[in-house]
Amino acid sequence: MIERIASPKKTREIIEKNQFYFKKNFGQNFLIDSNILEDIVESASITEDDFVLEVGPGIGSLTQVLAEHAKHVVCVEIDNHLIPILTETLQDYSNIEIMHGDILKININQLITEKNDDKPIKVVANLPYYITTPIIMDLLENKRKVSSITVMVQKEVAERMQAAPKTKDYGALTVAVQYYCNTEINKIVPPSCFMPQPKVASAVITLHVAQKPNIEVADEKLFFHIVKCAFGQRRKTLLNCLFNQGGFSFSKEDIVDILQECGLDEKIRGEALSLQDFGNLCNVIHAKL
After folding, report:
1. Contact 6, 37 (CB under 8 A)
2. Which of 209, 235, 263 is the last residue of a domain?
3. Which of 24-28, 77-81, 212-216, 248-252 has the lowest mean pLDDT?
4. Which of the two ends of the chain, N or C, has the fewest CB atoms closer than 10 A to its terminal CB?
């Protein structure tokens, strides 16, 4: 069996050999616990039939385990200094393809068409905080052919994706993710599982992408505009948020009537609305535009 990359000794050896320096701007924290890697692969339900897109492979710790379970793995790394390291650490695997680039600038649809005959793929990643939301929303909003997204993120971000209405974690990201996906937090991961150690705990969360959104809305663009308005100023009522930021031609009295038609109190805040409430609000507003 090929030696695991994900151990403190092996990781340190690779870093020192290649004189690699961690870059804060890329949020680099390498996993050094192989048990966690197995948990990630299990959470993603990776099988020998799966094509996997990995974002930010680092030195290949997770890539290695993915390759041992999947049919094919394409890993996209933005740090050009890691490309020769990955080429060496993963040289024993014939089902891995290494790409240098920014995942937000790569044509993912074209990659899926060329590499997987336009069939849905699974995305797996250990994501730094600064890029988590942009990557996830790019995959969801642009309706990439992705069946699931299993990511290691900061614990608070994972909790935000799975939050319930009327909680401090509930926000625009929550509504967006739950509109497209069914979520499942698989595991909480302590800082000690990384090199260097982050300051906060992380979590593995799987987003099971639904074949169609979890609610029906008349206008998806309008739906997300309303959601954005509702959480733009959390301390203000939904009425004031829609009136001041919505850009609608409605008077305040009109918006009060719309809220009442939806069964919502005029003093309610956006954080109290469920996914279905936002959907109903969107549909009523759309009918009156």
Report:
1. yes
2. 209
3. 24-28
4. N
Q: Distance of CA 153 to CAs 53, 108, 142, Å?
A: 17, 21, 21
How far does CA 260 lie from the centroid of its chain? Answer: 35
For the chain, give me the number of helices (H) and strands (E)?
A: 12, 9
Query: Are 229 and 118 in the same domain?
Result: no
Q: CA 91 from chain center: how many Å? A: 29
Q: How many domains does the chain have?
A: 2
pTM of the model: 0.94
Q: Are residues 259 and 192 both part of a single domain? A: no
Same domain, yes or no, for 205 and 226? no
Report the b/e string of 220-244 with b at 16+ CB within 10 A. Answer: eebbbbbbbbbbeeeebbbbbbbbe
63-105 per-position pLDDT tens digit = 999 999 999 999 999 999 999 999 999 999 999 999 999 999 9
Taking Cα atoms as reference points, which of 159, 140, 160 lies closest to residue 149?
A: 140
